[in-house]
Description:
Elements: E1 7-10, H1 14-17, H2 28-39, E2 47-48, H3 56-59, H4 65-76, E3 79-81, E4 87-89, H5 92-112, E5 117-120, H6 142-150, E6 169-173, H7 180-185, E7 192-199, E8 221-226, H8 232-250, E9 254-259, H9 276-293, E10 298-302, H10 308-323, H11 345-354
Helix pairs in contact: 2-10, 5-6, 8-9, 8-11, 9-10
Amino acid sequence: MSQRHAVGYLYAPIFLAHTLPHHPEHHARLEAVMTLLRESGELDRLAELPFAPATASQLCAVHVDAYVELVKQLSARGGAMLGPDTYINRASFEAAAAAAGAALAATRAVLAGDVQRAFALVRPPGHHAFADHGEGFCLFNNIALAAKYALGDAPDNSTRARPPVLERVMIVDWDVHHGNGTQSIFYQDPRVLFVSIHQLPLYPLSGRVDEVGAGAGWGTTVNVPLPPGVGDDGYARVLDEIVVPLARRYRPQLLLMSAGFDAHWLDELAGMAVSLRGFARIVAALAELSDELCEGRLVATLEGGYDHDVLSYGVLNTLRVLRGESPDVALDPPGPFTDRPVSAEPIIRRVKATHELP
Ligand SMILES: [Zn+2]
């Protein structure tokens, strides 16, 4: 039996106020998640962690002032579109600042030892947000702020003593879309090992194997662009053969997870073949890594996932696995993908060669 862990969650109703009817990234996603977590009794097994919205000075650890101000102004004026697919409404600035604040507070709570692991159940998602612009449904980059806080780059506004600043943080982004915003923010930063496992071709069309970082950060960006149709076993191999050895070589002090559930075979925005049990296996592999290398410390933020049942059960299973339950008992109402999955082998070979993994 695996270890038991104290796990916290962060949520606030303001996350539902950022919404647009008929848009795939709307409030009902997170509403469905919270309903299942309540009805299943999962919330009673977790610590609810307090948080405040990220302040302008905290947001500016990740974003340029002019962009933070733009989101604030557009929101105050009632809303606007940031490009073809990313909306802002009257509540969006408040919601996005709260989402970023939740990611920061989750990291603070884990580093302070209040809980061992935490999941920020937030909207809007963040991994497509760049320093100077938002796209792909994302306004502020939540996971990037979590990393910047851990590394001492974002101010701590709490009255409590600040936990020790870390030197090495690993972000694993297994949302089906490339984490282009997060990659860009840390592309030259050797203190962050960023690994993205995503479908290519697919929005945002970046995340090729040869995007490996630059300058001092050369080699600390790792992209695993999978062809459509890869399923549970392909993802498990990526974890075993790429993510685990990379982590052992880098020795992160904290594991951060951009958790998106849109690689599921039912998701309409992508073409992967992962099942709910497959997601639970990914989370279990990362949780084990955090036990081995990071004293169990792991912080997750919610990214995509557009089938509401998949998203709800995906989050529930994630929390159960983070608490120490076996991924074998993951709840999986839609069941496994029944066609033949596509092999991840050629990409795994290329990534291993590029990053000199055995
Ligand atoms: Zn996504």
